[in-house]
Specification:
mainly alpha, 5 helices, 0% strand
Length: 167
């Protein structure tokens, strides 16, 4: 008999074990509101990223028209590179705004920052004029330090997913 045969005892045993594990997970999900919130938050963040990535890759409505696998892979990698570059730029802008608020005396709570999403699009003009005169300007060194105390979140063993969907 083949190892994948439905009559193989090992195959049948693993299939049943898999069904038991899936049932237990489903029962945990149905009976645990906190687990449902975490799963929903993680799903919402993934969907938000996918929507953002599709918004960034607006050319040809996101359809890869080339049948060449190499060209398809290039298109996907270029879109991922552009998406990550915009997310990084948004994160830098958000960090700078938080620094300015802290300098002005505002108190920033970690819970507030947990709701901020880097998937912002309002400031991006995909179809407008693009200037290249800034290409020669050397940017200031990036300062990764952000004066916000996250120890309370770490002590409570909470993650960003526990605070719900990104804004």
């Amino acid at each position: 008999m083949r190892s994948g045969s439905k009559k193989n005892a090992t195959y049948a045993t693993f299939r049943e074990v898999g069904r038991v594990i899936r049932t237990v997970q489903l029962l945990r999900y149905l009976s645990d509101p906190a687990l449902r919130r975490r799963v929903t938050a993680a799903t919402n963040k993934t969907e938000a990223f996918n929507g953002f990535s599709q918004w960034i890759g607006f050319g040809n409505r996101g359809v890869i028209a080339d049948n060449d696998p190499v060209e398809q892979e290039k298109a996907m990698k270029f879109n991922a590179l552009l998406t990550n570059a915009v997310i990084f730029h948004n994160a830098l802008d958000i960090a700078e705004i938080v620094r300015q608020l802290l300098e002005e005396g505002w108190e920033i709570e970690p819970e507030d920052l947990a709701h901020i999403s880097p998937y912002l699009t309002e400031h991006i003009n995909r179809f407008g004029e693009y200037s290249t005169h800034e290409l020669g300007i050397q940017p200031d060194a990036y300062d990764p330090k952000l004066d916000v105390d996250f120890t309370r979140l770490r002590d409570q063993n909470l993650g960003a997913a526990d605070f719900g969907q990104a804004a």
